[in-house]
Structures are given as C-alpha cells and as structure tokens.
C-alpha cells in the first residue's frame, strides 16, 4: 500500500542538457513572439485571407474534430471513478404433475466500485487530460504553420507581381531598342548582328513573362487551396508597401523557444507516456473492488412494496496478479520504451526549434544586407546604361555594350525583388520559429 503512493506523481518537464549551445549568447527577451498575427501582418487583404484559412482549412477542421474526440475520452476517464450500477430481473414459472403452476420473480440491483489504491484510474485520467491538451497544442501548431504558409504564399505573389512588372517594362525597353537599332542600321551606324542580338534578348524576356504569368496563376490556386476554398481572384498589395515591426531584440532564450506549440506538443506527448508507464506498472499490483447488491424475491401475488424476502449482499474483493501469461510484464516494458522514445522526440523538437530560429535569423540578416547592396547595384547599373547609350550615340561604344548593361540591370532588378521577398520570408520564419501569434 505504501508503494502505491509512487503512482500518484505528477509529470515534470525534464532537463535537457547542452541545448543552450544552440542559441545566441545574449538572452535578451525577444519581443517578436508577443505580436499577434494581426499586429504582425498589417496588410488588411492578407489578414482576410488568414481569417478565411483559419475557418475553412481542412487541417484546422480536422484538428477541431480531434479535440472533440479527446474531450470525450477525458469524460470517459472521469466516469471510471464512479461506481458501476446494474440491475437484473429474473422470473420463474414452474409446475409439476398434478400441481398448479408457480410463478416467482427476483429483482436485484448491483453496484460495484473499484478502489484506486495503486493509481491505475488516476493515471488514466491524468493521461487523458494531457492528451486533450496535446490536441489543443496540435491545433495551435497547425494554426501557426498555416498563418506562416498563407503569408509566405501571399508575399510570393507580391514578388512575382514585382518581377512581372519589371520584365514587362524591360520588354518595352527592348522593343524600343530594336526600333532604334533598325533605324541606325538603315543609316549605316549599326549592324544586322546588333539587331538580331536585341531581338534574341527580347524573345528571352517574352519567355520570362509567360513563365511568371503561369507561376502567378499556380500560386493563386495554391493560396486558395490553403484557405480551403475554390480558386478566386486574389486581390493584393505591392511588395514595396509591406511593413513589419522593427523594434524587437535578437537574443533568443531557451525558455522562449520551449513555448512553441510543437515543442509543447512533444512535451505533452512525453507526459502521456509518463502516465501510461505508471498505469502499466499499476497492473502488477492488487485490484480492490467493493460490490454490493440488494433485491426482492417473491412468489406470484406479492408486491415490490411488500416482498416475500429481502436479499442484501456486500462483498469486498482483492485480486493480486500472479501469472498473466507475461502480459503485465510486457505492458510495462512497452510503456518504458515508449516513454524513452517520447523523451528523445522532445529533445529533437527542442533541437529543431533552435535550428529553425538560428536559420531564420541568419536568413533575415543576410537578405536585409543583400537588399541594401541591390539598391546600390541598381543605381550603378542605371548609370552604366545611360553612359553606354551616350557613348554609342557618339560612336565610342558598340550597341553590344548597351545590350549587356541593360541585361545586367534587368537581372539586378529581379534580384532586388527576390532579396526583398527573402528578407520578408526570414522575418516570417523567425516569427513562426519563436512561436509567435499563437494563443496558448
């Protein structure tokens, strides 16, 4: 009986060593995760798409059904503490040779209650409570991932719009170049090779425009699928108009990452295995049951209010497993291995969270620096295009140099929009990696 007290122990978060090495030395509290997703994503069109996704996304709807199932399982675990009550009614009709028939009845209500001396029912109830919390955490993890994915898809569309706009503007420039080169060729100041080179460059840009238009259509359909609705016209802003919170610290403490929904979900899974292990151990100990019954017996003609005979019985029983074909022993061994596996999964969840934070932080910092370089490069290349055009006008440069300068400018402008998108992606990934926007 004293040994049974060990079964009534609550789960405690394990200490996983050497994980602090994954994080920045500065442990300043990161305020980024405190922003709600509505505060973080200020684009009202994007906010509407996120709300629609949270309402109709298939994974979100499935997560809500899983919560309902876990709530039902918890109710069943709570009811296990109550006595079980049943009633039996027997009637008998008997008779012999030369005697009249005799009719009698037996009405017996019975109640049985298990004394949870060794924590089997208690651990089952605790496990059901943690399992319910695990389903809520799973819903939050899906929600956090869905918000980040919808935002990424939306900003991908903005990047493609920007690149399409740049490519179409460049296509207009190439058409003007071809007209200019054709006129210079008639005047004997340009060659047929220069005209053909300009046309080839124009065809290349036309192909890029078609590719970008196809990618935009595919991205719009993918975004609609994420929201759980049929494809529709995706209204959107521009990449240049997007703003994000800038006043937040960079230090990432381990305590903050451990509050991510997926990390908490792994911890809840570990807790369920902890209580399942205790429950499995409890099967090795006695099971105490109290059973009581009361009833009436009477022959025909009697009444329940005035029966012929009362029956009252109270039984206390204790069952100690001795040999159960090894089932109880195997149950404990399996529960032990499952608990160890859950501990490894919890550790891996923390490792993954730390790696995601560091990668997102590095991506954001690198893309922000690249974007600043892109701006300088574009200013330089525009000056180069203007100078080569001026030199060609006075015969000091060939038109091939002009074509090369314009091609380099196009590539730089496309890279600028891509790096801006990568910077935004880094911010979103960091926000997601820190568990931002969830409500636990």
Q: Could you give the topology of this structure?
A:
Blueprint: H1 37-40, H2 44-56, H3 58-79, E1 84-94, E2 102-115, H4 120-186, H5 192-226, H6 254-257, H7 261-282, E3 287-299, E4 309-319, H8 327-393, H9 399-433
Antiparallel strand pairs: 1-2, 2-3, 3-4
Helix pairs in contact: 2-4, 3-4, 4-5, 4-7, 4-9, 5-9, 7-8, 8-9
Describe the structure.
This protein starts with 36 loop residues before the first helix and ends in a 7-residue tail after the last helix. Strand 1 (84-94) and strand 2 (102-115) form a beta hairpin. The chain contains nine helices and four strands, in the order H-H-H-E-E-H-H-H-H-E-E-H-H. Helix content is 61%, strand content 11%. It has helices spanning 37-40, 44-56, 58-79, 120-186, 192-226, 254-257, 261-282, 327-393, 399-433; strands at residues 84-94, 102-115, 287-299, 309-319. The radius of gyration is 37 Å and the shape is elongated.
Number of helices: 9
List the strand order in the largest sheet: 1-2-3-4
Structural class assignment: alpha+beta
Broad shape = elongated
The averaged pLDDT comes out at 78
Strand content: 5-15%
Please summarize the sheet with the most strands: 4 strands, antiparallel
Low-confidence stretches: 22-29
Relative helix content: 55-70%
Distance between the termini: 39 Å
Order of helices and strands: HHHEEHHHHEEHH
Number of strands: 4
Radius of gyration: 37 Å
